[in-house]
Amino acid sequence: MEISVSLPPQSTSPTAPAPAPPSPASMGDKRYMILIGLNYMCLFLGSVSSSLLSKFYFNHKGSSRWVSTWVQSAGFPFLLLPIYLPYHLFKCTQRKPFSRFTPKILLLSVMVGFLLGINNLLFSWGNSYLPVSTSSLLLSSQLAFNLILSVIIVKQKTTFSNLNCVVLLTLSSVLLGLQGGGSNTTLQGLNRTKHLIGFFCTLGAGLLFALYLPLMEMIYRKVYCYAMVVEMQLVMEVAATALAFTGMAWDGGFSEMRNESSKVFDLGPRAYWLTVAFNVVTWQLCFLGTAGMIFCTTSLTSGICMTALMAMNVLGGVLVYGDEFGGAKVVSTLLCEWGFCSYVYGIYVNQKKRNEEERAKDKVVNGSQQLQLMEMSA
């Protein structure tokens, strides 16, 4: 899908600045909302499904964290469909794939792809040692990191609701870390050390992903259409897959995968490969939805949308796997939701204030125009 926007004519003045890339919101409101809705649907389905499937893999004696890392980016060939089909098959766009894809954008995409590869590995380690509900709540701390890094990288304005959200989400994560593994950790044979490893790996994954969000917002400001977002996502996933492939080759991950499918996975080879395949698809949906939300809105809004899904991940872990949902986790969830709701309310208040200011300006402009007309008629 391409966002086509007519650019204003450039000034002939040598001192005139180059025109900025068009905002995605400059397209029709209906198409813009449809694009946001489709991307959030991808984010919703991908986030919840991938989290549950990753835990399913480890619960049934899957133990390779390299395999869990690899599946998060190995589905990049699916991105070739939205890149090439609109131009070659459907003929619905005149833009050739990878046009305006400069060497600088290529280099940035590869570097961010390696960052995503490290983030995927940390997520796999954390998810293998923690219940889904715990890891999901810990990952909600990425919103706090996201706010801080957005202020530094893309000059995001701080408000009371922003800071309130940071404090509450930080307290939520600390509470989970002090709680320990609970009964689920004991049943899986995990000691306190492994629980702490999972805790810090998950926090590290949240920090790296929070860095990824404002970095991509800064890069997407130079991107002219949604098609380029998908193309950049393809390059990033290729780089992340190359990193995982290297780790698997160095650590014997491919032979471990064959051994797991035939001898270790307690549901049999067919269930093993289906789990891997569905993991590959759902992770692509998750990352594609995230990239689309950053492009259509901001990195902070994208992080907020992901935080809103954490409650669904927690609920999924409790319903599907019977994760413990004791007092500490209930309080942590309430703190998380309190922080999220306070931030949404802050956005509502600020938007209402801006609308009132715009209406006031319109009244002043209309009044001055009417006064000029009266003077001219007199």
UniProtKB/TrEMBL annotation:
Among its keywords, does the record have Membrane?
yes
GO CC terms on record? membrane
Q: Where is this region: Disordered?
A: 1-25
Among Pfam families, the record links this protein to: PUNUT
- Alphabetic keyword roster: Membrane, Transmembrane, Transmembrane helix, Transport
Provide the GO MF annotations for this entry: purine nucleobase transmembrane transporter activity; purine nucleoside transmembrane transporter activity
> InterPro entries, from UniProt?
EmrE-like, PUP_plant
Q: Which residues cross the membrane?
A: 32-54, 66-85, 105-125, 137-154, 166-183, 195-213, 225-250, 270-296, 303-322, 328-349
User: What is the protein named?
Assistant: Probable purine permease
What is the source species?
Escallonia herrerae
